[in-house]
Amino acid sequence: MLQGSILQKLAVAHAEKRPLNFGVYYKNTLVALCHALEDCILSCSEPPLVITAFQRGKWYLQEADRYNELAQKSRQVAIMAAPDAGFTEHPTSQLANVDVLGIDPSDPVAQEWHLMILGSSYTAMVLCQELSEADYGTAGKPATDLERKFYGFWTFEPVLVQETVEIAIAHMQTYNPELAQKLTNQVKEIVAAAPNTEQEDLGSIVSCVVDYLQTSEADSTGKHQQALDNNLVSNELQAFLRLAQLIDNADTNNQMTTAEVAALAETVGQMMDLPAWQLKRLRLAGLLHRVAPCTVSVEYGEAPSCPLMPAAQILRTMPRMSAIARIITHQNELWNGTGQPGGYAGEEIPLESRILGLVTAFQKRVTDLQAAHHSGDSVLMQVLAEFRAKQGEHWEPKLVDTLELLVMGLQQGLNLPVVLPKISAGMWLIDAQGTDVPNFNDKRVKSSGY
What we know:
alpha+beta, Hypothetical protein af1432, two-stranded antiparallel ribbon, elongated
């Protein structure tokens, strides 16, 4: 990571905070990802501030016509790149709300590829740095441009995007203090307006990202096609995981809900001696179970308001996720057939859906009681008694028996591994050939009762 680069400054700022999920991205992945995130600007209800770094002016010139359209829907566009011929003369660069900043070729930002979108209704960011010659190893840099590799991450998190935008503006200060001050004022206006602005539909944005990545996957060619495809597929999964992460972040009662549900589901599956591939599906379904919006209350959880389950339909756009979408769709079915959306009864309900529904309701009930200042083993026993009373009605009797064994284990010191996944390395979750599941551990396990 280059000293003095925006990526390095952000990493240093987070050295003592929550670690950032860095990964390696091929250029073709970044092109598709950036185009998807940029296209969402066109439908924004409020114009955002856009800051980009293109490495060299020639890369900006390839996108300059596109940025003309984006500028019409943005409050301000600031572009950084080491200048090339025609860099500042292009018509897009002459627009009143577009500022082109030629940076010194020796500036570490000249090796970075950034897209920062900060708006009151929509935020997104791609933050990457090209690998050095040494990083590529003995094989050297690839001959094909789209196979070039970059190190970094992407996110929808508003606080993280704002923090990075402020670092970028500070970097611009040495080149153009007047521009830096103008952008600082715009950031203040955006942040002030955000709490009173309706947020864009992230489900639609994620769907757009997946569409772009899948199109790029279909178009990819070259001797490293499998590696390129895997990078694209991994980022399709990352899009869903980032959506789930934002839903968790907005939950003031428990921002570890998906990790806890995933750990509970996987443990129940292990107690039932399910094969590794099924445990992997359970874990992923647990991590994504909140992407399907629910509004109709049932006793311990919520049932979907629409049988089509819009967010689960988004999951189905990714072929490898169809099984996960089915599990999530039917997580609110009940053993006696009175659940939704299909009204399935008994073993008509997919096994993973039965497990997911049970542990999701269990986790929610325990969390609610803990929030009400109940504590310790009494909470687990109280919730278990409630589930016992509903076995054969809401819950499969054998699953409740397994839940009881799990509760007994927790009371005797069983340590459930609860941890958020490393989003930038998600392929292991959907690789049918893989059987290795990371052994995570988290201190919150002991304090939460899980």
